């Protein structure tokens, strides 16, 4: 914590001093003062020093003064103050030019100024500023600690900190999801935030781009904010961010925010501990429900309601039809039918995510589950969501088409444009009408996520309804059996790494997809009709007369789909 070069020149001891070169560095920070008594001063200087000299050690220096300016700038000094006339005469133009080029302030001191007065005034001012910063930080720490001791959480902490600092304050996860905020609706349009998903307008729907934001003070479009990490031990729990509103922030505000982050870390750890117990209880119930361990399914919905979940489908009559009200001729819209779908999301294996600092992140599975819980509860708190060992499971209430809702949730969890987070694959079950159907739906979603990753790789989204024949292939537990079937059916066409075999497989696949329409297949493959006829004969010599045998065509179609499955 120090004062700028401009502020230092306003001190009584520096009355009459002026910057003669390097004006661009007028806001460099001075934290200490040093006196140059020897030409080789570099081993004894420190960053953010104001270096005082009479010029006497430089009068016979063998190296140009321009080199000295460059060396002092590289060492991080704030400025050099020189009494030039007694020993140096006028300052050399090349020195002034070098200082202007580097933005390194060169201050010309009046002859009558005493170095001990400068030392006293500058150091006294720095100590006064540091004392004020510590007092402000202590005030913030005591105010927030009192809230924490009274049982307040992140919402209360951000509100009090916003009052003290006079601007919006928010707490985010390490990847930028807003956990608590006060006044953030006035700043979430800034470029340090991702845009909210379509249809979402609240501050909690935005994400702070933590991967592009650094601790300390930053300005975006004229709006200044201070950011500090929330750390507990060696674990990174998120970010505490305050935005300047009525006044500009300075180092004192950053120091106050750092003290506030300590209290915020306690609140986060407490919240995580309570949530861990509650989540385990909920997850145990949901696992028992989805794996068919609950004997009394009639009471399952009632018990879920005590946990804040609604898993009761609603049959209705739907389709916008109307029925007559009991009290007259008025008509009312019939309740819209509501079904349930199970969604399973798994982190894709084989990813390496390094933390942005030496501080570790919470385990990836915990952060993944927390992200889903935040996003799902933001839409509908009554939708069950829980993290199991390797997967996150969500039970969604949906209408006729769950796809738009599923896409929206996946986009929000993955953080569109966020960068740096792990990819995950998702499987979605068919719609079910009763709680008793949920175990079967859970198995469908699990099969869908596994088969989707096999077909499309990491980040896939697979609906059980759309798997087709892959639903049957997913039931075969032995991959060797599938490989053997594909090899024995395709014979010479199954050769891996053979360009000719791959080319003929493509031809066969297009023929099967066009229901053996040779003209259409030739058009899609950009072949001459006779060329395709020649290729058909070549394929039949390898695999048999598939043009005449429907059973062989079925086998070949299944074998080709097996080859599309990754890992086989």
UniProtKB/TrEMBL annotation:
Domain CdaR GGDEF-like: 337-451
Boundaries of every PucR C-terminal helix-turn-helix domain copy: 504-562
Region described as Disordered: spans on this chain: 310-333
Signal peptide boundaries: none
Purine catabolism PurC-like domain location: 8-125
InterPro entries xref list: CdaR-like_regulators, CdaR_GGDEF, PucR_C-HTH_dom, PucR_C-HTH_sf, PucR_dom
Pfam families: GGDEF_2 (PF17853), HTH_30 (PF13556), PucR (PF07905)
Family: Belongs to the CdaR family.
Name used for this protein in its record: PucR family transcriptional regulator ligand-binding domain-containing protein
Organism of derivation: Catenulispora pinistramenti
Lineage: Bacteria, Bacillati, Actinomycetota, Actinomycetes, Catenulisporales
């Amino acid at each position: 914590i120090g004062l700028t070069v401009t502020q230092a020149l306003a001190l009584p001891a520096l009355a009459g001093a002026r910057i003669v070169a390097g004006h661009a560095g007028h806001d460099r920070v001075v934290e200490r003062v040093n006196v140059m008594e020897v030409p080789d001063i570099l081993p004894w200087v420190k960053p953010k020093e104001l270096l005082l000299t009479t010029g006497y050690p430089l009068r016979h220096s063998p190296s140009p003064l321009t080199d000295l300016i460059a060396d002092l700038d590289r060492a991080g000094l704030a400025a050099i103050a020189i009494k030039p006339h007694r020993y140096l005469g006028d300052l050399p133009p090349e020195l002034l030019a070098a200082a202007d080029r580097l933005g390194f302030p060169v201050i010309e001191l009046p002859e009558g100024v005493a170095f001990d007065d400068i030392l006293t005034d500058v150091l006294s001012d720095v100590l006064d500023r540091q004392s004020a910063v510590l007092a402000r930080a202590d005030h913030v720490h005591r105010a927030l600690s009192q809230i924490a001791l009274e049982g307040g959480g992140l919402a209360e902490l951000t509100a009090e900190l916003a009052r003290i600092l006079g601007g919006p304050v928010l707490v985010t996860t390490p990847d930028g999801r807003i956990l608590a905020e006060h006044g953030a609706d006035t700043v979430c349009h800034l470029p340090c935030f991702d845009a909210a998903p379509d249809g979402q307008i609240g501050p909690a729907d935005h994400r702070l781009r933590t991967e592009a934001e650094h601790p300390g003070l930053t300005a975006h479009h004229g709006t200044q904010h201070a950011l500090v990490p929330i750390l507990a031990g060696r674990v990174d729990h998120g970010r505490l961010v305050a935005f300047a509103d009525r006044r500009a922030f300075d180092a004192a505000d950053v120091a106050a925010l750092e003290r506030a982050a300590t209290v915020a870390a306690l609140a986060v750890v407490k919240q995580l501990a309570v949530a861990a117990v509650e989540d385990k209880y909920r997850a145990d119930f949901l696992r028992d429900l989805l794996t068919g361990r609950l004997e009394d399914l009639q009471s399952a919905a009632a018990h879920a309601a005590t946990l804040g979940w609604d898993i009761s489908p609603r049959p209705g009559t739907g389709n916008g039809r109307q029925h007559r009200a009991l009290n007259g001729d008025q008509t009312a819209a019939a309740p819209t039918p509501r079904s349930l779908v199970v969604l399973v999301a798994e982190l894709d294996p084989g990813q390496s995510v390094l933390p942005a600092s030496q501080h570790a992140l919470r385990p990836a599975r915990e952060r993944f589950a927390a992200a889903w819980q935040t996003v799902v509860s933001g839409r509908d708190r009554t939708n069950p969501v829980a993290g199991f060992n390797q997967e996150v499971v969500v039970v969604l209430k949906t209408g006729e088409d769950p796809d738009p809702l599923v896409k929206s949730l996946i986009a929000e969890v993955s953080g569109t444009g966020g960068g740096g987070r792990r990819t995950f694959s998702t499987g979605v079950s068919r719609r079910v009408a009763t709680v008793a159907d949920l175990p079967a739906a859970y198995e469908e979603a699990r099969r869908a996520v596994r088969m989707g990753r096999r077909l499309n790789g990491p980040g896939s989204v697979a609906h059980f309804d759309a798997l087709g024949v892959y639903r049957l292939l997913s039931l075969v537990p032995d991959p060797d059996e599938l490989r053997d079937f594909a090899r024995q059916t395709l014979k010479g066409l199954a050769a891996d790494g053979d360009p000719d075999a791959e080319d003929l497989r493509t031809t066969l696949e297009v023929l099967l997809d066009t229901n053996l329409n040779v003209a259409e297949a030739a058009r899609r493959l950009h072949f001459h009709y006779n060329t395709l006829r020649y290729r058909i004969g070549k394929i039949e010599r390898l695999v048999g007369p598939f043009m005449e045998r429907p059973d062989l065509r079925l086998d070949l179609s299944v074998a080709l789909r097996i080859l599309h499955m990754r890992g086989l």
